[in-house]
UniProtKB/TrEMBL annotation:
Residues 1-21 form the signal peptide. Keywords: Membrane, Signal. It comes from Pseudoduganella namucuonensis. GO terms for cellular component: outer membrane. It is found in: Membrane. This is Glycine zipper 2TM domain-containing protein. InterPro entries: Bact_OM_lipoprot/Surf_antigen (IPR051407), Gly_zipper_2TM_dom (IPR008816). Its main location: membrane. Pfam families: Rick_17kDa_Anti (PF05433). The keyword Signal applies. Transmembrane segments: none annotated.
Length: 198
């Protein structure tokens, strides 16, 4: 048997093995080692037909070397098939959840409304110039109180969620409602936010 015949038979065996989809790495390895053993047995038969002993020995060495390569390739393919899948860059784990109070903003409505109410109350106190001072003080105090009251009414809660991604980066996300995440939850980034990983 010459090297061309041996190479051609290995190429055909490789093409045949690529045509079949294997359901698992273990089954792929078993099928590949079986093919390699069958090819090796056929190559040894061809080697037996060589005319002199030197050519037969060389043929058998070549056949054995090709058999060993086929076994090594099958083992490598099995190892690659069972290797851990690559990390998902968009996937991560929640490492912190906190709730904070978001301060509301006052507007002219709160200031004016509070000022009017304060002025009316201040006007009820005292008489003469004291009444004027009380009205002014009531307006100023009322404006301040109205602004603070409006800020309080417009304040809201914010849920801050910190995520540690599989690729080593971290992300912070804010929600105006309870997103329902807890430490350790598996999440995935989506459209500028995060969702539970399915």
């Amino acid at each position: 048997m010459n090297m061309r015949t041996l190479t051609l038979s290995l190429i055909l065996a490789g093409a045949a093995s690529a045509a079949f989809a294997q359901p698992s790495a273990k089954q792929l390895y078993a099928a590949e080692t079986k093919r390699a053993a069958t090819q090796y047995a056929e190559d040894k038969k061809l080697c037996a037909e060589e005319g002199n002993s030197s050519a037969r020995m060389q043929c058998q060495r070549d056949a054995k070397a090709e058999y060993n390569k086929a076994l090594a390739a099958a083992k490598a393919a099995q190892k690659n098939a069972t290797a851990k899948p690559m990390a998902c860059n968009d996937c991560g784990r929640v490492i912190g959840v906190s709730v904070a109070e978001k301060k509301g903003e006052g507007s002219a409505v709160g200031v004016i409304g509070g000022g009017v109410a304060g002025a009316l109350l201040g006007n009820q106190v005292g008489g003469g110039s004291g009444k004027k001072l009380a009205t002014i003080a009531g307006a100023v105090g009322g404006a301040y109180a109205g602004n603070k009251a409006e800020e309080h009414l417009k304040s809201s809660k914010v849920w801050n969620v910190k995520v540690q991604y599989d690729n080593g980066t971290q992300g912070d996300y804010s929600f105006d409602h309870d997103p329902g995440f807890a430490n350790g939850d598996l999440v995935k980034s989506a459209n500028g936010s995060i969702v539970r990983k399915q």
